[in-house]
Amino acid sequence: MSTYRAVIVGLTGIGASRPSETEGPVFGAMPASHAAAYHKHSQTEVVGVCDLRAEALDAFRNQWGDVWPQVNTYTDYREMFDKEQPDLVSVVTSDHAHADISVAAAEGSAQAILCEKPIATTLPDADRMIEAAEANNTLLSIEHTRRWYPSYLQAREMIRSGELGALRTIVCEQFGPRAMMFRNGTHMIDMMCFFAEARPAWLVGDLEPGFEHFTEYMGDGGHDPATDPFASAYIHFDNGVRAFYNCRKMAFNGSQFSLTCEKGRIEISDQKFEVITQREARWWSHAEVPTDPYMAIRQSGAVAELIRVLERGGTLVSPGREARKTLQIMLGILDSHHAGNVRVDV
Length: 346
Ligand SMILES: NC(=O)c1ccc[n+]([C@@H]2O[C@H](COP(=O)([O-])OP(=O)(O)OC[C@H]3O[C@@H](n4cnc5c(N)ncnc54)[C@H](O)[C@@H]3O)[C@@H](O)[C@H]2O)c1
Prior knowledge:
There is one protein chain. This protein is α/β, with parallel strands linked by helices. The protein has helices spanning about 15, 35-40, 55-65, 75-85, 100-105, 125-135, 150-160, 180-195, 300-310, 320-340; strands at about 5-10, 45-50, 70-75, 90, 110-115, 140-145, 165-175, 200-205, 230-235, 240-250, 255-260, 265-270, 275-280, 285-290, 345. It folds into two domains: about 5-145 and about 295-320, Rossmann fold, CATH 3.40.50; about 145-295 and about 325-345, Dihydrodipicolinate Reductase, domain 2 (2-Layer Sandwich). About 35% of the residues lie in helices and about 25% in strands. Helix 6 runs antiparallel to helix 10. The chain is globular and about 65 Å long. The protein starts with a strand and ends with a strand. It binds nicotinamide-adenine-dinucleotide (NAD).
């Protein structure tokens, strides 16, 4: 079995946090960070980490020193790529920095890149990343987390099987104090593309009041809800799927998708997966679908998938070209809003 040399650029919680080893049934805690995912996978080791902040490098050594005592720390990712010659590169910086780092990784030694969502803040940046990955035969996976959740994958398999008939509409709702479009909405819009399995053709968008000035997203990491609006949109996919996205900042927290097909409906959230079919006339039958809680999920699923595709071939569940659709939609919503909530071709 090969061992893959991994490096991480960007060391906040999503890049570097360490779960308690004692939590979680059977396989222990399911990681919620890139470092923890590399720790969990038996064929990966972290050989280098990079952050602009020295305190983040110290914190990494304190947290993970017992696992990777030899790890080298850097403030310059290009120097790290040159010295460490990594096979796997995690890009976990603020969004506007994803592109330069991913391109340098693809043009260097990386066989695979796991980049945080959204792919980038502009379409030219997303295109540079995709082109560099394709030109160098490097896998580019974008960490839109729900793509590695068993329940969402199972729901899409159910739609693909045709047992509920063709998918016609998607209704997505997301609420919470941090229900901002670029920060958290990107996950929801990505899942709409995941289920629709088509190209977004056109849309109409409406931003949070007070964001009339917001014509571009700077990718500041999105910690402050005042810097990233909530939004609503109607998105028309080119296979005829009609998708409604409704995201709003409020105290009530959560998200959900209703996927209505010709012969039934799936209601799915992070908490529940339910299939609704017609019992008679106007009456519905509800059936909860159990899902496998022991699969590798989130970043762990993403790392395991990269190793599998590197070794055995196949396609990724969250490639750069898919994540580009989500960015197109979010930028299209900005354009629609500023033109007076008009139809925008994507
Ligand atoms: N998948 C998820 O659920 C999830 C959750 C949280 C954050 N994220 C994503 O993860 C990324 C990081 O989010 P965040 O909130 O930690 O962002 P952040 O901006 O707070 O922090 C990013 C870290 O990257 C470092 N950094 C920035 N530019 C750098 C560079 N050129 N070289 C080295 N280090 C650099 C910063 O010093 C900082 O420590 C974002 O893309 C965000 O959207 C995803």
